[in-house]
Amino acid sequence: MERRHLLAGSAAAAALAAPNLASAQPRIRWRMPGSFPKSLDTLYGTQERICRRVGEMTDGAFQILPFGPGEVMPALSVMDGVGSGTVECGYTSAYYYLGKDPALSIATCLPFGMSSRQLWSWLQEGGGRALLADVYRDQGVMAIPAGNTGAQMGGWFRREINTVGDLNGLKFRIAGHGGAVLQKLGVVAQQIPGPDLYPALERGVIDALEWVGPYDDEKLGFQRVARFYYAPGWWEYSPSIDLMIHPAAYEALPNHYKAILEAACTEAWHWMMARYDHLNPQALRRLVAQGTQLRVFSRDILSACYRAAQDLYAEIGSSNARFRRIHAEWDKYRVEEVQWFRLAEDTQANFLGLMAQQQQR
Amino acid sequence: MERRHLLAGSAAAAALAAPNLASAQPRIRWRMPGSFPKSLDTLYGTQERICRRVGEMTDGAFQILPFGPGEVMPALSVMDGVGSGTVECGYTSAYYYLGKDPALSIATCLPFGMSSRQLWSWLQEGGGRALLADVYRDQGVMAIPAGNTGAQMGGWFRREINTVGDLNGLKFRIAGHGGAVLQKLGVVAQQIPGPDLYPALERGVIDALEWVGPYDDEKLGFQRVARFYYAPGWWEYSPSIDLMIHPAAYEALPNHYKAILEAACTEAWHWMMARYDHLNPQALRRLVAQGTQLRVFSRDILSACYRAAQDLYAEIGSSNARFRRIHAEWDKYRVEEVQWFRLAEDTQANFLGLMAQQQQR
After folding, report:
1. Average pLDDT of every residue of chain B
2. CA quadruple A79, A84, A86, A88: dihedral sign
3. What is the DSSP letter of A147?
4. Residue B130 lies in a domain
5. What angle do CA B243, B247, B249 make, to 5 degrees?
6. Residues of B with CB below 8 A from A21's CB?
């Protein structure tokens, strides 16, 4: 009996140590439509990169094909397409769909929200993904954070905005909750698709617009029709992009493909950040050389917008208990992060900013 | 001819679509000694995580075993052990070995260096890894960035440091280039191993010490023997941790294992950051509740240290052309990043810092 037991033990040990050359690498093919034009090598480039990296990590066995807007479905139908199972996954941002549920915008960014590192910490370690899983589930999808642009710019203005009063009547192309905040201060918030932006600004149909940041904005040529480039884009401090996945497709994956997909999305988030951090300073330098005037919104303007944003969150929360609950958790986390960053990170950033300014002179 | 051509085309297409259930997943076992005590769930925890994730992504076929300091080799012999091929890889920081080559410290961090996001951008997109590859090669290793603590604290002081003159004669436990900078201002820089730090500070053998940040520091209990906790740790704005790999071991990996190893290291870098960003604010709150007094080095002190750091880099560069060349590239990149962050990121961080301060009152 004892001997048999020992033998059984050895056999089990031998099985564990056996070579595993035929580990299952099932061939899987997915389609990934996205919301971002192929002309944006930052955003669409990251979508392509996820597909390429999943292929590389599975020795070509798990292939995902990326598609641009309109190829498989329209740009802003991606979440619906994933939810209905028309496609297995899609690359998009949750806040495009805030009309369905305002809590979706917490997953991307809220005005005066967290920095990219703070948001990453909240999502991955602070319980953010667990809190948001419910919100996605209602839309028939699950999501992995898979991109972030970092802080965007405050947009292109044909005239200077010096006081809160200057916002009154301003025709500003700005979408989502940022637009809703500014409407409280008299801004006429407009929604205009990307391709129509340049002519609208050139002809004065709008007074101002916001797009992304120096690198993406420069391609659209806004510097030729507006002189003032404002910072910061307080409505998009660190907008996050998701890989949305149809739950049944995800569950059908072997565990190691699930692990690889998660890793490819983490790579994507931080690759996009690195691309923007690499390309934006160069583009900013070119824009300034072409005569673009940089401006920073005054503290009065920021404070008025901050208060209007808090009012907006209270309004949404008053009729939406889940938004109220998730927003409260998010905001508590955010304030603790800000207090810590203020001590250890911002003191260095500000000192080094001063030194760089002195070197520049 | 046309028909044969068509048939050939179909055959090629069929081959591409053929199931590939027996894709090669060779069993590989590596050892990974590290430089960080197992008591640090942040640093050692990340080392473990890389091993776990590589296993998960290869369905258990590529197994890496983590070891703490002294188990396979001493904490500060890891680079040598990897270089000689005693082990396949190791988890350590390049600046521990700056005595062999001062350029190794550029790979980890230099005093008044880049923020974590700036360093990540430089390493991955700004050519940093290519520039440093030579430096690692001289030590017989290659390296993948695989962790970062974010901004560390300036350390624990038994008395306040108000002027540059207060640094004179200060017995401060601080290693590496940070210590070399402070020595120029009269500090008596000391090297004391981790376990001896608490008694040294308690007995007044030293006046001050720096370790990591709130979460790791709290465990060692420094708050009980020093009252003043300074920020920022300008000598460690974003220290990077490497997975160092023996080149022949790396080259023997199939390409998809190489891709998985790279992805696991990217995950590790950002997981460590998220862990610290999640845990540090909570620990800071506890420390303050126990009576720790927070202080920020004055601008005069920071300026004097900044100038001393520039002098140090000029001295090292005068006798080391490669250090001079890489440092010049690094510094040019850094200044451009700082100027961009100052506009888009820091304006938001500072405004939100102010709002958080007002909310706190």
Report:
1. 93
2. positive
3. E
4. yes
5. 90
6. 22, 24-27
Cβ distance A148 to A240 under 8 Å? yes
Residue A221 CB coordination number (10 Å): 12
Has residue B136 been placed in a domain?
Answer: yes
**Alpha-helix runs per DSSP H in chain B:** 2-17, 43-57, 78-83, 104-108, 116-124, 128-137, 176-183, 197-202, 214-220, 247-251, 255-289, 299-318, 321-344, 346-360
Q: Is A212 on the interface with B (CB under 8 A)?
A: no
Structure tokens at B174: 């601080």
SS (H, E, C) B290-301: CCCEEEECCHHH
CATH of the domain at A43: 3.40.190.170
Looking at the complex, report in whole angstroms how far the Cα of residue A14 sits from the nearest Cα belonging to chain B.
14
Tell me what the mean pLDDT of segment A126-149 comes to.
Answer: 98
CB contact under 8 A, B341 and A353: yes
Within a domain: residue A59?
yes
Q: What domain range is B67 assigned to?
A: 25-151+238-278
Interface contact flag, B121 A234, Cβ < 8 Å? no
**Sign of the C-alpha dihedral, residues A297, A303, A307, A313?**
positive
Give CA–CA dist A275/A215, Å, rounded: 10
- Closest to B286 measured CA to CA, from B208, B222, B239: B222
Kindly calculate the radius of gyration of chain A based on its CA atoms and give it in whole angstroms: 23
Q: How close does chain A come to B289, measured CA to CA in Å?
A: 15
Q: Which residue of A has its CA nearest to B63?
A: A17
Q: Who among B118, B254, B299 is closest to A277 (CB)?
A: B118
Tokens of B22: 């027996």
- Residue at A271 is within a domain: yes
Which residue in B50, B57, B217, B255 has the most chain A C-beta atoms within 10 A of its own C-beta, making it the best mutation to test that interface? B57
- Least-confidence region, from A25-39, A190-204, B16-30: B16-30
Number of structural domains in chain A: 1
Residue among B126, B95, B91 at smallest CA distance from B109:
B95
Q: Which of B16, B218, B228, B343 to mutate to test the interface with A (most CBs of A within 10 A)?
A: B343
pLDDT digits (tens, 9 = 90+) for A279-302: 999 999 999 999 999 999 999 999
Q: Is the pLDDT of residue B318 over 70?
A: yes
User: Which ipTM did the prediction report?
Assistant: 0.93
Contacts of A321 (CB under 8 A, 6+ apart): none
Residue owning tokens 């808090």: A310
Q: Name every residue whose Cβ is closer than 8 Å to that of residue A335 and which is 6 or more positions away in sequence.
A: B356, B359, B360
- Look at residue B110 and tell me whether its pLDDT is greater than 70: yes
